[in-house]
Amino acid sequence: MPPTARYVAGSIALGYLGVPVLVAVPSAFLTASIESTAWQLAAAAMVGMVVAFGLGALRGRSPRRPGRWVPALLPVVASPAALLLLWVVAYGVTGTLAATVDVFFVPALAYLPLVLSILFGGAPLVIPVTLVAVLAGTVAGFLVGARGEPRPTGRQSLAVILVACLALVATASAQVGQQVATAILLTGEASMSDEVNLWQYQPFVTGNRLAVPDRPPSLRISADYPRLDGATALYPLYAAIGQATYQLPDAAAHENDRIDFADRYLACSTTSVAYDRLIGGEVDAIFVAQPSKGQLAKAGEAGVELSLTPIGREAFVFFVNRDNPVENLTLDQVRDIYSRRITNWKQVGGRDEPIVAFQRPEDSGSQTAMLAMVMKDRAMADPLKEEVATGMGGIVSEVAGYRNLTGAIGYSFRWYATVMNANPGIRLVAIDGVPPTLDSIRDGSYPLTGGINIVTTRPPGPPLRALIDWTLSAEGQALLEKTGYVGR
User: HEC profile for 380-431?
Assistant: First the structure.
């Protein structure tokens, strides 16, 4: 193979495989070991820049390097530029960072370690930040390395390549920068996770944020532990109940063992999946809002009956961008917004701005509450694809920063939106003149107050019966209130 051909093949392979692997492995380790999203981004950018700069400099100093800029630099930047362009296209198609990660990793397998670390809790922003850093580092390293003799010739060709690279970096940086800026503005940290980080509510782990009873509970379960699951918004509640009442076996001496125990008996798989698991007999009880018509139908088809035990109350809330001047909506106005009879905020006393009404997927807990408590017999308008947020955290962040507009509206449950996934970029609106507060939930004046339930499909065995009774007792209700909910 001629030297030039070997140079081209080596440069492309290094850019597509060598650099990504050398960047992805340490970046994955850092992403997994650093909790702060901002520091994850900084670490990934630094690793990408340093590795790409070093290997780019080696290509610039290669004795096989062609004598002109185009054949010398183009093979070096082709792979990192193509990977970055791939991410830009994937983001443009999916519209969300989390979905882009899923699309991106198939054609970019060399970045798989980094992708896996993101799927297990890292920030999706790490990937585009890394790609921009790698391309910029590659170009900078090559130019430094090429300062030796013989130097490539043809400044005009170099200018064309550099302008093309800068344009690509600028395009990707604009996408990344918008997400980072919105996240920093709204949360104080560059975090764009669609869902809240449940690790902070992981039971049996030192330093978690779970509420703890004021005194040792009267109930201690040491065998036949009930298998619990439920809604994301209620995980801090039933995780706290399990942590308080489940006596860990001797085998769970180490933290990893305690985590495995919690994953088995105190899972969190969201409302729709939790109902499926309960109906399928995979769990014994779930902590959720009322079932949807679809979930009742699934239970009927499976020949099981859903039994609901109310244990507390919570407010179903609507929120808007914090810069939206509308502070109150009537229930009829909400219904008209979601049936598209009202399409502009000026129709409800706001600015002359189109309303972007976000919805949740069918059978999610908040969508079920929306249909049952708000719409009732009124049909909701079919949402646009981009108006459906797959995660509860997603609907909060979308309303907070939807394309930097103030016209969005969404819904969730009060505690999730104000505590578990608090975002200063949103503001709750009063309904029929009553704001959703603990007092208005307690006295029933807030019109959208619903029940928190333990749902079972068969007569509870002794441990589960004892757990339900304890949750209904003064001790359990005190823990529920301490978590931030309102007792029954």
Answer: CCCCCHHHECCCHHHHHHHHHHHHHCCCEEEEEEHHHHHHHCCCCCEEECEE
